[in-house]
Amino acid sequence: MNANKTQIDTAMQAFPLWNQLGTEQRAERLTNSLNTLTGDARKMAQWQINNALAQIAAKQLMPGPTGESNLLSNQGRGVFISLITDLPTQREQLFTAVVGQVYAALVAGNSVIHHGEMGQTLLAGLEAYLPDGVLQEANQAEHQENLQDIRLAGVCALTDDKNLIEIKQKLANKEGLLCQLVSETDFINYSNQAKPSFIHQFTTEQTISTNTTAVGGNATLLELGSKTD
Length: 229
Fold this sequence. Notes:
Elements: H1 3-20, H2 23-32, H3 39-55, E1 60-63, E2 69-76, E3 79-84, H4 91-107, E4 111-115, H5 119-126, E5 135-138, H6 143-147, E6 154-158, H7 161-173, E7 180-184, E8 203-210, H8 217-226
Parallel strand pairs: 3-4, 3-6, 4-5, 6-7
Antiparallel strand pairs: 1-2, 2-8
């Protein structure tokens, strides 16, 4: 069996249970893993966790025009590929950026397959705090094949402007789900990862509507709303 397909299968199976835990429980597990990190990498991970709690943890109640109750929440998108292209960046800065994108993707409820260097370090620190299959490591050479998988929900990439264009073209031309691209090209200020809105690039909105009116109430309200004096 193709090793890449097996990894995607494993990530797909792990995603629903991890996503269903909710932001608070995922944040708690990831917070417990912070003792495996030091320096700026630890600060980055902590910021992503705190930002997720502030931005996506709370569900928003939105009363509907015909009496129904609408509960808006943020959910993970599915399986994300984390990758690094060839960059002349200091290892410490690059590792901080890897931590930023992987922790954001995980706390948002996604499962992640990381390609390339630093994967072993990241996996070793996190595997004791995550369910099996939520975070996996893969060879850098295998990312091209995984990018073509029709089930892929998103890609988070540490790259430069030239390679970013190439990745965009590949994702635009591939079949299957519309694939979200989350990128970082600034490894000094982390200008994208530092935005409060960064976490929303890893989520999708879900609305659950509950009919709170009596039987026939919605139809009555609609009829009354259509009448004019």
